Amino acid sequence: MRIEGCIIGFDEYMNLVLDDAEEVHMKTKNRKPLGRIMLKGDNITLLQSVSN
């Protein structure tokens, strides 16, 4: 599973605020809209630019 969204804020602990976030399941390609979320830095393993 991965989270995709647009970064609109962050702090010194790498906590991120994402807008238009979606939960993407890799095997099924199902996408679940989440809206605006705060993702804790402890849960982040990789940041990658995704083009539309």
TrEMBL record:
UniProtKB keywords: Cytoplasm, mRNA processing, mRNA splicing, Nucleus, Ribonucleoprotein, RNA-binding, Spliceosome
CDD domains (alphabetical): Sm_E
GO molecular function, one term: RNA binding
Subcellular location, principal: cytoplasm
Compartments in which it is found: Cytoplasm, Cytosol; Nucleus
Protein's GO biological process: spliceosomal snRNP assembly
Transmembrane residue ranges: none
GO-annotated cellular components: cytosol; spliceosomal complex; U1 snRNP; U2 snRNP; U4 snRNP; U4/U6 x U5 tri-snRNP complex; U5 snRNP
Domain of life: Eukaryota
Pfam families in alphabetical order: LSM
PROSITE patterns: SM (PS52002)
Coiled-coil region list: none
Residue span, Sm domain: 1-52
Family from the record: Belongs to the snRNP Sm proteins family.
Functional description taken from the UniProt entry: Plays a role in pre-mRNA splicing as a core component of the spliceosomal U1, U2, U4 and U5 small nuclear ribonucleoproteins (snRNPs), the building blocks of the spliceosome. Component of both the pre-catalytic spliceosome B complex and activated spliceosome C complexes. As a component of the minor spliceosome, involved in the splicing of U12-type introns in pre-mRNAs. As part of the U7 snRNP it is involved in histone 3'-end processing.
Name of the molecule in the record: Small nuclear ribonucleoprotein E
Record organism: Sinocyclocheilus grahami (Dianchi golden-line fish)
